[in-house]
Amino acid sequence: MQVFYTGAEWTSIRLQFQSNNSTIGLVPTMGALHEGHLDLVAQCIQQADISVVSIFVNPTQFNNPEDFEKYPSSLQEDLELLEKAGVDYVFVPEVKTMYPQETNLKFDFGPLERVLEGAFRPGHFNGVGIIVSKLFNMIQPNLAFFGQKDLQQVAIIKRLVNDLSFPIQLEIVPTRREEDGLALSSRNRRLNKSDREKALILYRSMVLAKKELLEGKSWLEVQKKIHQEFKKTEGVDLEYFELVEPDRFELSTEFSTLKKASLCVAAYVGEVRLIDNLPVIS
Ligand SMILES: Nc1ncnc2c1ncn2[C@@H]1O[C@H](COP(=O)(O)OP(=O)(O)OP(=O)(O)O)[C@@H](O)[C@H]1O
Ligand SMILES: CC(C)(CO)[C@@H](O)C(=O)[O-]
Ligand code: BAL
């Protein structure tokens, strides 16, 4: 495994295998790696000839400075995990490499970004759009791997690839969960023992809501019940619990009209903001 730090280094590395039509797979991450990331990595190694993982905590996608400062980091362990997994290359750029000067670039993803993460984290998807475009331009992968855990991000990146005609095939990998259902997330490392227990409410509330929707209860009734459950849980603050059509990301008020539907949730558990989603009909 080779670690590289700049686009220029990658350009010269690529020359070695450019002539034999090898396919390049990219897994963009922000580090503090867990088994969920490793699922993306395993799929990348399986599907592409050359695997590249990027580790970069992208400042432009953080709307909350404290969230950025406290974002977990474990580069040495990450590199050991990636080496063991059989990754070929790891890109670990510095901020000045990705942003040699401050950017004023603005993406507008329209209705896709007006709700949920886009509404609660203003500027977040602009930052994601910028960094993912930069990574795509620098690495020029044939395939790129993203997790379903960030469902709205998946819709945004599909749109980005279409709008900018990136010649890249996107592969979406299902969410890896702990045995009790909690979605793996780098931010889980910031949970203390009691908050780790409380965090289960995200998954459990989606499982309950899915069951009730499939039994024929109305969405508004189900949503109200879940809001009440969250209110009863001290130390957990619900930001949203919504039903969406996962391609268009419009909030739904009526379950029975949907052909595809997912539940999406975001909540603060103590100081840590977590998100999750669950397909109801896929
Ligand atoms: N539990 C998971 N299962 C599958 N993929 C995941 C999981 N968690 C994250 N990913 C995916 O890994 C990629 C990198 O995500 P990122 O580095 O932000 O990790 P993260 O665990 O989502 O961190 P956080 O939730 O704290 O933002 C993204 O495409 C993300 O969707
Ligand atoms: C895609 C990504 C690596 C861009 O910084 C990030 O949003 C993430 O980890 O999901
Ligand atoms: N996985 C999403 C990246 C973020 O929370 O900024």
UniProtKB/TrEMBL annotation:
One of its GO terms (biological process) is pantothenate biosynthetic process. (R)-pantoate binds at Q61, Q153. The gene is panC. GO terms for cellular component: cytosol. Belongs to the pantothenate synthetase family. One of its GO terms (molecular function) is pantoate-beta-alanine ligase activity. It is found in: Cytoplasm. It holds the Pfam family Pantoate_ligase. It comes from Algoriphagus kandeliae. Beta-alanine binds at Q61. Its main location: cytoplasm. This is Pantothenate synthetase. ATP binds at residues 30-37, 147-150, 184-187. Catalyzes the condensation of pantoate with beta-alanine in an ATP-dependent reaction via a pantoyl-adenylate intermediate.
